[in-house]
Amino acid sequence: MNKLDQLYKMTKIVADTGDIDAIKQHSPIDATTNPSLLFKAAQQTQYHDLVKSAIDYGHQGDTGEHRMQRTLDKLSVNFGVEILKTIPGRISTEVDSRLSFDTAGTVAKAEQLIGLYESEGIVRERILIKVAATWEGIKAAEHLEKTGIHCNLTLMFSLVQAVACAEAGITLISPFVGRIFDWYKKAEGVESYAAHEDPGVISVSNIYDYYKAFDYKTVVMGASFRNSGEILELAGCDLLTISPGLMEELKNTEGDVPRKLDAAQSKAKTIEAIDASEQSFRWMMNEDAMATEKLSEGIRNFTADTLKLEKYIDQLAGIKAA
User: Fold this and answer.
1) Would the pTM of this model clear 0.90, i.e. be above it?
2) Torsion of CA 249, 263, 171, 14, to 10 degrees
3) What is the Cα–Cα distance from 167 to 139, expressed in whole angstroms?
């Protein structure tokens, strides 16, 4: 049995892409998107109708900034609706990263996205709203969860972020393995790590252990992988979101895949509780250079790709008008 099929037996596999054709090839349960993935997918010829539909929607009654916001929201939902036709589970759709420090703005945007999905006949239970795991983002997600809008907290690099999310009753978190790996690789001047010593793998394993030890309902979805070794070292995690390229690699590789994470073993561990109040959260983030830098960098990079997407949409809208 190939390694991907073995992973399916112990972990829910989620496709990390906006490429609908790639999702069809691997039959994941769920799928995740972000501004970077949407920008890449929107440029592919086979998805131009989804982009043009979003442009048409954006031009209905609004001008300027509001027009672009409507277009971006509709584009995210257009891709989400098409992806949901190919998977049995949920799609994660991301709130504009420029709202990462705006609790009220994040709540309003999430409600708009859910409204667009529901207008397409998609029930909210099939949607996860992705929000950056800033303090403001976590508070927004806490409010949304209480109103029946489920959330996926992204750009997560530390245990205190994870604990704050669990305390807030968030549905799912996405700790980023590969970006943690990138930071430590540069900081320590090394070429790589053995999978079991990978700082990103260790971070997700610690979060998983903490959640199971304290019996939190929030589930862990490892994300942002740089190689298949990181994925296999997290076999048994609640969910793993994997790019099509790495899924293909695992599908074409034979060999045993032992379970690495096990809830029963986590529950047996003695783990000290962490204070995730706002004061503690901000202090612990301040003391964690990696988490602080990668969270800020992630927000900047997602914003940069959103701006690229806006420019691309403007170009297409101009061509269409001409």
Assistant:
1) yes
2) 10
3) 11
Q: Which residue has the tokens 């397409």?
A: 120
Q: What is the DSSP letter of 95?
A: P
Q: Interhelix angle for 177-188 vs 289-321, to 10°?
A: 120
Q: What is the pLDDT of residues 158-186, one digit of tens each?
A: 999 999 999 999 999 999 999 999 999 99
> Domains of the chain, with CATH numbers?
3-315 (3.20.20.70)
Catalytic (active site) residue 130: yes
Burial of 24 (0-12, 13-18, 19+ CB in 10 A): middle
| Residue 228 and residue 249 in contact, taking contact as beta carbons nearer than 8 Å | yes
DSSP state letter for 96: P
Provide CB contacts within 8 A for 148, sequence distance 6+.
124
Question: For residues 257 and 237, what is the distance between their CA atoms, to the nearest angstrom?
Answer: 13
CB 267 within 8 A of CB 212: yes
Tell which residue, 30, 173, 31, 33, has the closest CA to residue 89. 30
**Looking up tokens 């989804």, which residue turns up?**
50
Among 3, 74, 109, 130, the active-site one is 130
Classified as helix, coil or strand, 70 is helix
pLDDT at residue 154, as a whole number: 97
